[in-house]
Amino acid sequence: MNTGKKNGIKALKCTVCGKVFKFQSRLKRHLIIHSGEKPYRCTQCDRCFNVSSNLKRHLMFHSNEKPYRCTQCNKCYTCSSSLKTHLMSHTGENPYRCTQCDKCFNQSSDLKRHLLIHSGEKPYRCTQCNKCFTWSSSLKTHLMIHTGDKPYRCTQCDKHFNRSSTLKRHLLIHSGEKTYRCTQCDNCFSCSSSLKTHLMIHTGEKPYSCTQCDKCFNYPSTLRTHLMIHSGKKPYKCTHCDKCFTSRICLLRHNRSSHGDFPHKCSHCSKGFKDDRGLKRHKCRNISSEDREKYTCWMCGEFCHNCCGILYHMYKHGMRKETE
């Protein structure tokens, strides 16, 4: 431990990282960070902390105690630092700036997370499928795919979600609230991400490009679906007929047309149609050459779909002949 002078006061310097402290107690507490020691244990969940104040703050999560209230919107927080960060949303203050893209944040932790995007670093690896993530929270959410865990439940329709943010977005469907308005066409959206994506229609921006054919897309999901064309991957399998598709939308479209509630069924392949016209078109495309010849008018070459149709059609020729 080195000592020096800081503003005329005797300063205590950490020999590991060079940080300077005014008080011995502060330096002692700081040294625990380097040693990795976590002597303060939570009796409710066995989580450990390196300082008593962090344990005290953690215990508020178990007690649901939130003593720090925002005077502007009455939102409550477990610690003063969270309230301080929240207040910046009212003032619009974002003091932490990224030097690479000038994006600003109201928390240093958010800036640190953001910087990983520029470095391309993905330190959090899934042990089950080796997929890597920039943030631990993303890995935690991803793991729920393997476990099937969906802890966030909608009280209105019993639908479950693996993210609280997805549940919040889903709840807007029930409330019908659409607070995000497009200034160019007055279209309204329930979440900011939907508005952001929509704005690309006006700007013509397509930031997601395929590395194999240089085709560009305005949705990451559309790019993912497109990439399956190159890989030949078809992960969406129909449970009725084992046919496979590149996207969920294609599978849904297939289910609607082939296995949905369509009363007009083809007697040869059981494919269903909403109306008789659709069934007739299908039969016309798939009819055998023998039947096609049987139901084709020898006078004008018009094709009819069945025996009644050809008889009626020939009757019209006879009527026309009589009038002539």
UniProtKB/TrEMBL annotation:
It comes from the Eukaryota. Gene3D superfamilies: Classic Zinc Finger. Its main location: nucleus. This is C2H2-type domain-containing protein. It is found in: Nucleus. SUPFAM superfamilies: beta-beta-alpha zinc fingers (SSF57667). Belongs to the krueppel C2H2-type zinc-finger protein family. GO terms for molecular function: DNA-binding transcription factor activity, RNA polymerase II-specific; RNA polymerase II cis-regulatory region sequence-specific DNA binding; zinc ion binding. PANTHER family: FI01424P, ZINC FINGER AND SCAN DOMAIN-CONTAINING. It comes from Desmophyllum pertusum. InterPro entries: Znf_C2H2_sf (IPR036236), Znf_C2H2_type (IPR013087). May be involved in transcriptional regulation. GO terms for cellular component: nucleus. The keyword Hydrolase does not apply. Keywords: DNA-binding, Metal-binding, Nucleus, Repeat, Transcription, Transcription regulation, Zinc, Zinc-finger. Residues 12-39, 40-67, 68-95, 96-123, 124-151, 152-179, 180-207, 208-235, 236-263, 264-293 form the C2H2-type domain.
